[in-house]
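FIELD: query
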Amino acid sequence: MTDESSPADATPKHRGKRGRRRKPRSKRKKALVITAWSAAAVVVLGGTGLGYVYFKLNGNIKGVDINAALGTDRPLDVDNGSQDILVLGSDSRSGKNGKYGKDEGAARSDTAMIVHVYKGHKKASVVSIPRDTLITRPECAVKDGDGKVDPGGERQMFNTAYEVGGPACAVKTVEKMSGIRMDHYVEVDFTGFKKLIDTLGGVDITTKQPIKDKDSHLDLPAGSHTLNGEQALGLVRTRHGVGDGSDLGRIQLQQAFIKALMNQVKDINLFGNPKKLYDLADSSTSAITTDSDLDSVKDLASFANGLKGIGSGAMKMVTLPVEYDPADRNRVIPLEEADQQVWDALKADKPIPKSATDKSAGDKGAAGKVVTSD
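FIELD: result
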């Protein structure tokens, strides 16, 4: 598929061109998800009465009022104890993100995942939506368009929803596709992602084969590595270094990296290191844009605390069932019956059946097995 990303020019810290070797691990244990770490920092630091810290972190978070933007034209809000969150990775090239390519005045959703948290908040399913999926995009208010409306239409790439109408249009598009109301929205951009990984001290992965992609400036031999922020960003953006060079292979890499991140074990005593706590909370809150229900440290902390019990082993990750478009192999089209199986399962708060993805072009190939956290 055509790639809209461009090379990252920062040089990763590594041995020559081979990536920084991973240091020996200390005792392994399940780590909290990154947002829960941030929440812990907020609670600990805010509890000390350091008002500046609270308001500094509170001011970091950018919020979007999705409810006001979409009004009542939305799926029913079912209160069954589950939650559905749309998570987007923005490929904006404005500001500090300019190093990743030419700023053409609009951003697209480079990565899109629907996270379904089951009742009890002990397990989750994640459905990745390929950005090149051809869909029927609904009518949306144009972002910064002074009341203008984009009519949408058939055979529109999924990631153009964010480009046209920002977070509200992305949420509206997902809700029209799935029939599921999104409870929350979380967006992370390139620069914020990189800074967050660096603040953590890197992410440990093992590559089963070399990964080399000149477009993302990624050059990793087979073996164990601790990826810094620039390298981690290169990994989740690469598509030509592994598999068939498609966005479907890149999604598998992204899913593998997320699991590695969730399993991350670093020899860092966060609660005994106030500066580390603050730096992590500062980086996390600066990296994200959320819906208005999460745009305060209090609300974000409460939300993250409800997710902290979900480890990578309790998270099922799939790609939306698709097939290559016969008219354009650089695009994919939804498998409607299989997609409906996915949406019906999530609506019923049940696991996604294996049969839903049997005929899908997603989740195939070896790309997802190239990176592990072992």
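FIELD: remark
Confidence is low (pLDDT under 50) at residues 1-50, 93-105.
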